Amino acid sequence: MKDLENTDRSTRLDWRVVFGITLTAVWILAGLTYLLIMVGWVNFVSLPTGDIGSFLEGAFAPLAFLWLVIGHFMQQTEISANTKATQQQEESSKRQEIHSQRNSYFKLLSLVQEQLGNIAGFHYVSVCGETGTGEITGDDYQRMRAESANGDAALFIRKMVSLAGSHTGDMEAIREIFLGTDIRTRHSNNFATTFGKLLANARAIDHDDMVVNALLYGSPSGMLYRIIRAAQGKEKLNPLTGFATVQSQNQAE
What we know:
Blueprint lengths: L1 H10 L3 H25 L1 H5 L3 H80 L9 H12 L5 H11 L5 H9 L2 H24 L4 H8 L2 H12 L22
Helix pairs in contact: 2-4, 4-5, 4-6, 4-8, 6-10, 8-10, 9-10
């Protein structure tokens, strides 16, 4: 339907052209009438060539100016239309680029979430395994690893969040969980660094902060990231929940 409308518009004469043609026809007709009535055709053709040229030049000079003005305004309209079309193409290209960047980001997100899950798994076994509290056995860990590998990449992340939540109000215990040994500190730093890079990539493609807020405040990995930062002294724990931080996401590193 739009194509038909565009075709119809392209085949229609511009009103300025119609106006110019009409005025030109009237002007020429009036000139011929004046010539035939006031001068006479025989007398006109008997005039010297220079006089005839001067007469025609004076007669058609207003028409030349008229079409010059019409051409100028039509050119301005065409330039404006081309500029608008160029802007629309640029906007379309930007939307396609953003869409492509977001698709690439979400593919990256899936891979990084698995990596974060693996880091949290090693951290969890360090805290609750045989080298830690002994709450889980090697068989328990292998079973949870299999469950995580079968589509639940956030399993160990949720385990770590739950573990921190069980020590609400006890910052010493939380620091012990995340910074109590060199291995735990390394896992915490690794998780925070990896998630921080993921967050930076999200900010690059997210102009309304929807993805950033969902990632930072609505996902287990974002919650664990903020808990780790609280254990490192970079954020404060929310007194109501015990682990949801009160610092704004714009201040997160």
